[in-house]
Amino acid sequence: MSSTEQPTRVEYVTDPAAAMSWLASADRFGEYVMYEQPGVWVFAADPLGSVELDAGELRTAWGERTTARAWTGSPAATVDAALASLPLDGRNAYGWIGFEFCAYSLGATHYLNPLTSLAHLMIPRIEVRIDASGVRISGATPAETCDIHDLIAASQGSELPSAHPVDVRPDSTGYQDRVAGAVEEIRSGSYQKVILSRKVALPFAVDVPATYRLGRANNTPARSFLLRLGGLEAAGFSPELVASVDDDRVVTTEPLAGTRAFGLGADADRAARVDLLADPKEIVEHAISVQTSFAEIAEVAVPGTTAVSDFMAVRERGSVQHLASTVRGELAADRTAWDALEVLFPSVTASGIPKRAGVDSVFRNDHDERGLYSGAVVCVSPTGALEATLVLRAIYQTGEGAWLRAGAGIVGQSRPEREFEETCEKLGSVAPYVVKA
What is this structure's pTM? Predict the structure, then answer.
């Protein structure tokens, strides 16, 4: 226990999502990042310091002091060094990296402007951790600790919020035409696969913490998150890890590729699963994604340690089911967790194959910046461990409005109408559960 950690008041929390939503909605703790791992929920709030990386500037803050400077080289190495320069004193860091973070390693920086946000991490003063052992609170004053316990207690058994479902079928982005154009490029040999996405703007302001709670009650994510950081609010139900590096230096990624609807009833779900496992297009899409992930981990792993497990398992993620595999390797002694993240980012299942050509196609054909969509929410341990979860099945909001976004993997066998339907199926993980502000 750190010097700032309050003794645990053991509470059995039956609904951690409600507790996290209430802490976020209370608006007493400044900016925050909430992150769910299997069996563990963390609410990290009231930043002591931060690292913000734009295409044109690095800003590092601690307390009242902020420094800003130009930067060059690798964004991953730049963020890693910036975090190391802060007096973390054993604290974790939490935040996000945007899709455009990949432009430097994949030769696409000419698509960026100097204000493009690449990453925003913060070091919290307060951490609230809920797991099977109860509630642990670090960094809070005694009065704040009492408030936190009271909020958690009040949240348990409270009614779920009411939804304002969103119609996701209207499309102002010309999605099917863009897919048809990408299929032509693929068939001409330009690349093998690209993930093209479409944005669905919402005509009203959103209660993001309430949307998180209702959405989490109706989703089965690998990880989930809720954040308010640097003018951005977001909540999501991540289907897969981009990368994790644990304290034993094991690097893991979980490529998901191949999709069918889920939640339509036992018979329909079973039929969709059988169809998914037999569809040549989906099998090819998944196999080339696993091959790419294997090669990427091998770049940073001890030779001979990279391996695939659970190949082509079917995993249920809210309104969809996916083909999934796990790829692991042992991180080489001369490599860091940020090196592993840089080589695996963006997820192969959210960019394309080969990645350089696929990412170029994304920048050309998705038109506007993706930002947090298909980026990652990141947790960084003072021990050097790191976890980055893929941001999909999410809702986003800034002062300019709220939106959803989803994409589909395009290969040579793709049909534009089917890929559009896949985006609708994926949007179905969030759109029915949006709560109006």
Answer: 0.92
